[in-house]
Amino acid sequence: MKIVLSSNNHGKIKEFNFLFKETKFKIIPLKEVSKIDIPETGTSYEENAFLKAKRANEISGLPALADDSGLEVKFLKNEPGIYSARYSGKNASDERNNKKLLKKMINTTKREAKYISVLFFYDPNNDIELYTYGELNGTIGKSEIGDKGFGYDPLFKIKNSNQTMAQISFKKRMELSHRSLSVKKMLNELSKLQNK
């Protein structure tokens, strides 16, 4: 089954291709069916994932999958949350977002954080709507360490580890990450539906 992935984020596309590679589902990146970028206008991860998947389905006619994910820092009352990708404003980048986060946390030892992933599968032709969730706990480091991954990975220290997400191998990230957890749950749900 072909599924359009409602994302133009290179890092996410790489992760989804890896996680789906040995399944009966083929991931088609949004950019292969349309040049548009679907805005995140929702007020929750669930709403953003829903809006992106619904729009990707309308554009492509294929079942669609969308992830909305973010970093939640306890000290910052769960900022940046749904605004993680655009935390530093209109011209946000990973570098600017990380700098803003470090600046806001400069005087605190309370560094607990978690990555959240909400995945939504939308197939209106078969009347299927599914949500799955993934979460990874850790802390925010005092500086960026590592050159793997993307987003806040150089700052995010994995719980019970001295390494950031940007220090571990891609394969290890695909075992641990919030997104891999939500994808594994989704694959389980989709397999159940196909076996009915």
Question: What attributes characterize this protein structure?
Answer:
single chain; 5 helices; alpha/beta; Maf protein; seven-stranded mixed beta sheet; 196 residues
Describe the structure.
The chain has 196 residues and is an alpha/beta fold. The chain has one domain (2-193): Maf protein (Alpha-Beta Complex), CATH 3.90.950. The protein is 32% helix and 24% strand. It contains five helices and seven strands; from the N terminus they run βαβαββαβββαα. The chain has helices at residues 10-20, 45-60, 94-104, 170-176, 178-194, and strands spanning 2-5, 26-29, 64-73, 79-80, 112-123, 128-140, 156-158. Strands 1, 2, 3, 4, 5, 6 and 7 form a seven-stranded mixed sheet that branches. Strand 5 (112-123) and strand 6 form a beta hairpin. It is globular and about 50 Å long.
